[in-house]
């Protein structure tokens, strides 16, 4: 049986194409419906990706301003890889200044820092700020939208297509509750975003005569314990939408509703799902983020062997009141790794399973940059091997 499980897990890893923690949970529904008056919904635990509840989770619908979760994800990826900085000034184009809907009334030619534009997007859902950032990062709206769809594909999202970075109504712009939850899951790998999404009110241009008061569109920050993000959405077509995240007792969950008739109904349904998660489930950290799991050899590298670490915490999700199941832990590292590689490159997985079901699959990454060896590094290494061997 153990041999069968090992073969099964290896096969699953071989065919996994998504670089982030994958979801292998089956769709689960509670016997009593958690949500009623919405078009679609999903509830999942963030670290394992386990789906705790769903309703029409793959139904393609307009996401409205929840689109900005992907916009924020690309911004935070750029901040993380140092191609963007918070104090960097962004000049606003005529196109960005012309956006309708929620906005901070940017003027063409105005300059604002990335930090302030992030506040405008995360707190005030500003369409003009979103477009200004999109053009700054990619050169044009069209190029940024290509990046959005490329990232969606990299995350394995099969029912999402973007046509703009704002969520304003347009053709061929859709997503699902499941895909929005997975985008939120990826964004939460940059916890700095919560500094912005958890802020209820702030000011822009504070020391000028154009002072602008920002109030968070997510009113649940004031009404539900543990909520610290992420993004609301509304258009006449999409109705009221929300991707929310909350953390209690070390467990973070994500809840998405799409197509609620009123903001009150939207918030009520999200609260119902979050209550269910915190009442019925708990998590236990098995391995912390960044722990060295093993040293691995990288072919033609200057370093020879490099440390491989967990990209995220390895977490075990348990249903309260149920006996602990026997779990199996396995580390799988891809074969024939070759230099060069950047720090953070996925090279394998830490897999937690029970019987033949994968409970969590956490990426393992190289801790530091791996450089390609020069010929003299390889020559020196081969001499060293010979010297330590039969000579």
CATH homologous superfamily heading of the largest domain: DD-peptidase/beta-lactamase superfamily
Q: What fold name goes in the CATH topology slot of the largest domain?
A: Beta-lactamase
Please give the largest β-sheet.
5 strands, antiparallel
Low-confidence runs (pLDDT<50, min 5 residues)? 1-31
Q: What do these coordinates show?
A:
The chain is of the alpha+beta class. The protein has two domains: 2-22 and 288-385, D-Ala-D-Ala carboxypeptidase, C-terminal domain (Peptidoglycan synthesis regulatory factor (PBP3), Domain 2, Sandwich), CATH 2.60.410; 40-281, Beta-lactamase. 30% of the residues lie in helices and 27% in strands. It has eleven helices and 16 strands. A hairpin with a 7-residue loop joins strand 5 (201-204) and strand 6. The longest helix is centred in the last third of the chain and has 18 residues, at 263-280.
Keywords:
391 residues; alpha+beta; Peptidoglycan synthesis regulatory factor (PBP3), Domain 2; 2 domains; 11 helices; protease; Peptidase_S11; EC 3.4.16.4; cell wall biogenesis/degradation; carboxypeptidase
Write the layout of secondary structure elements.
Layout: H1 2-14, E1 40-45, E2 51-55, H2 68-80, E3 89-91, H3 94-97, E4 111-113, H4 114-122, H5 127-138, H6 141-154, H7 177-187, H8 193-197, E5 201-204, E6 212-215, H9 220-223, E7 227-235, E8 239-248, E9 251-260, H10 263-280, E10 281-287, E11 292-297, E12 305-310, E13 314-319, E14 328-333, E15 346-354, E16 357-366, H11 375-387
Antiparallel strand pairs: 1-2, 1-9, 3-4, 5-6, 7-8, 8-9, 10-13, 11-12, 12-16, 14-15, 15-16
Domain Peptidase S11 D-Ala-D-Ala carboxypeptidase A C-terminal: 281-372
GO molecular function, one term: serine-type D-Ala-D-Ala carboxypeptidase activity
EC number: 3.4.16.4
């Amino acid at each position: 049986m153990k041999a069968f499980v090992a073969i099964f897990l290896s096969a699953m890893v071989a065919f996994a194409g998504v670089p982030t923690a994958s979801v292998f949970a089956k769709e689960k529904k509670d016997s009593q419906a958690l949500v009623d008056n919405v078009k679609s919904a999903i509830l999942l635990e963030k670290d394992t990706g386990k789906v705790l509840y769903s309703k029409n989770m793959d139904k393609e619908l307009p996401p409205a301003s929840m689109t900005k979760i992907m916009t924020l994800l690309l911004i935070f990826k750029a901040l993380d890889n140092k191609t963007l900085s918070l104090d960097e000034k962004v000049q606003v184009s005529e196109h960005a200044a012309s956006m309708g809907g929620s906005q901070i009334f940017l003027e063409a030619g105005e300059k604002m820092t990335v930090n302030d534009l992030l506040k405008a997007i995360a707190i005030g859902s500003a369409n003009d700020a979103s477009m200004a950032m999109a053009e700054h990062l990619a050169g044009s709206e069209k190029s940024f939208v290509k990046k959005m769809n490329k990232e969606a594909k990299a995350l394995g999202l099969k029912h999402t297509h973007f046509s703009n970075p704002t969520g304003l109504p347009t053709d061929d712009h859709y997503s699902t509750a499941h895909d929005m939850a997975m985008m939120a899951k990826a964004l939460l790998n940059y916890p700095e975003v919560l500094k912005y999404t958890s802020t209820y009110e702030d000011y822009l241009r504070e020391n000028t005569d154009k002072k602008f008061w920002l109030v968070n569109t997510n009113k649940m920050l004031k009404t539900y314990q543990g909520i610290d993000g992420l993004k609301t959405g509304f258009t006449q077509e999409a109705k009221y939408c929300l991707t929310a995240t909350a953390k209690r007792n070390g467990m973070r969950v994500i809840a998405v509703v799409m197509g609620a008739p009123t903001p009150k109904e939207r918030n009520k349904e999200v609260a119902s799902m979050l209550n269910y998660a915190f009442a019925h489930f708990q998590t236990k950290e098995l391995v912390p983020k960044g722990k060295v799991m093993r040293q691995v050899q990288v072919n033609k590298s200057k370093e020879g062997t490099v440390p491989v670490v967990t990209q995220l915490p390895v977490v075990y999700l348990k249903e309260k009141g149920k006996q602990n199941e026997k779990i199996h832990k396995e580390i799988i590292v891809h074969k024939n790794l070759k230099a060069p590689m950047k720090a953070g490159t996925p090279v394998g997985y830490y897999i937690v399973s029970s019987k033949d079901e994968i409970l969590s699959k956490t990426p393992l990454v190289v801790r530091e940059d791996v450089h390609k060896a020069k010929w003299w590094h390889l020559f020196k290494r081969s001499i060293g091997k010979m010297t330590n061997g039969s000579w």
